[in-house]
Amino acid sequence: xxxxxxxxxxxxxxxxxxxxxxxxxxxxxxxxxxxxxxxxxxxxxxxxxxxxxxxxxxxxxxxxxxxxxxxxxxxxxxxxxxxxxxxxxxxxxxxxxxxxxxxxxxxxxxxxxxxxxxxxxxxxxxxxxxxxxxxxxxxxxxxxxxxxxxxxxxxxxxxxxxxxxxxxxxxxxxxxxxxxxxxxxxxxxxxxxxxxxxxxxxxxxxxxxxxxxxxxxxxxxxxxxxxxxxxxxxxxxxxxxxxxxxxxxxxxxxxxxxxxxxxxxxxxxxxxxxxxxxxxxxxxxxxxxxxxxxxxxxxxxxxxxxxxxxxxxxxxxxxxxxxxxxxxxxxxxxxxxxxxxxxxxxxxxxxxxxxxxxxxxxxxxxxxxxxxxxxxxxxxxxxxxxxxxxxxxxxxxxxxxxxxxxxxxxxxxxxxxxxxxxxxxxxxxxxxxxxxxxxxxxxxxxxxxxxxxxxxxxxxxxxxxx
Length: 466
Hints:
By secondary structure, this protein is of the alpha/beta class. Helix content is 28%, strand content 20%. The radius of gyration is 23 Å and the shape is globular.
């Protein structure tokens, strides 16, 4: 049986191939573990034994529980590395108003779910305008925009505006109804400081034929966008999103550490990466805190963690209400274990900034973003903060994609072969050069991710719906 021990301090190993007693990706005891003793993986505590465990015995939810302390005290002791400096470029679409895009696309964004059908009809009929270098015309529909109040309504407006500012969008058409809370005047006011001339707006109630009106705008956009050409762009203009979903016992061994190496390469070349999924940092947050570049950033990061924990407890849930049934089936026992594997995606680089939900990336390096772990909500948040691509690691598999290319990176041989129509790269090989090459091919437009025909967005909704 093929097994691996991750850290010299560990008292559990991982069974890679599986056996009659221990499923693939699950843990086994390296020695006898007493009831109440800490279970160690990655050199860190991932839980506490609920009963005596014999050497070689299966270690999972039936004999281990979380050891998370909801009121843990945090400290700051800087411990991060400076990535090796690299010189790299990619072929992108230069923008006069910010970073380059890796796709030449036109977005149709409804301000409110009431006009979803109108937007989808426009997108369908506008496919005849896709020519030249245009990669696609997409309606990014959603169900909100009205009946939300206060911060909840503000978050929806903020996220939609941030989506419109993504570098992959050559042009954007906002379509409103005309009577919604998330009105067009608020959208325009939010975007005014950015001085963008590639965004158009109209309310369906204000025109005689909304389809005809919208199609005329899209046709004019396409006439300009079809002639855009890729040019050599410095890697400093690239921002990658780091996300995992459907994690399993291999995630922290293969795909997440491999993506961490890619993140270090991008940062070393002057680019940026964003890590989110705040609840999946619980149990590993101290490690990320010690990567904060300054004490000021540490304080911002700490406050984000404290506030998110308070959000859980105010709703009556413990912070360790995780992992999911699929995670457990794949070999993840506690939230600490899941989190320690999750943060591997950030590599060894220092943390240079902490972003609020919907806030655009500002600093080159790795930033932490305030958003939940839900796959589509978190991936949307990453792209809305400016990521041109999301690297999505998965052990269980998923066909979804947010509104930017979402590269699926399989953690194990089975999922990579079984769902080859979903998975772009098999990380079980730990082929760092191979994954970096695929990333370059993707951002250069030479490779199209297998889920790019799907474009979806979702919101982190926290307030009352009327």
